[in-house]
Known about the structure:
This protein is mainly α.
Amino acid sequence: MSSTSALKVFVYALDIVCALLALVLISFGIYVVVSYDLNEIGGLSAYAFIYLGAVALVILLWGYLSAWKENVCCTVTFVVFLWLIIATQFAVVFLLIHNEKSVASNLANPLEATWEEELNSPGAMSIYQNWFQCCGRGSPQDYIVNERLPPETCFRNHDKSKAENLIHTGCRVEFENYWLQLLQIFDILGGVLIGIELLISVISIRLCNSIRNDQRRSYF
Length: 220
């Protein structure tokens, strides 16, 4: 296999990996937008993940076609635009990492509406309390101050016969921690995407040189 062919195969393989990562980021962003009633900060963070993946897919398609056509001009232009996109992606990932706790707090805000619904329609909080093994908004005291006893979902194994089974952790902090862990995972995936894109840019430059050398040799 010639040097040019080997480099093209390497670029194609990395393109596929990047495309898969981009689709994961886009899917996460869409899931957040569709599944939750978001405020401005929560919405911006979700669209940030969609942006990271969408621009990667577009530029990688350009890079794939440039490598396939073995067009030096298109490949060089691709590398330049890829660097510009990497710069914006890096800024987005940096902001997401820097504001992880704030974003997680805002993404957890839908729980507030569920708690208000719980006060009017008992049972609304059960999905959170079963999911996170938590009780009330901040603690079981939230039920007591509203002249209600904690429901079965506030007890381990739903066993209300023993007071020690009462779960004292509130659902708000658990839901925020859930989002914080998810954000950390997808921020890392965003960083990995950027790293692979940088590697693609370096290999694409080498591919350009290899194509030029092949073209020179074809003249003789």
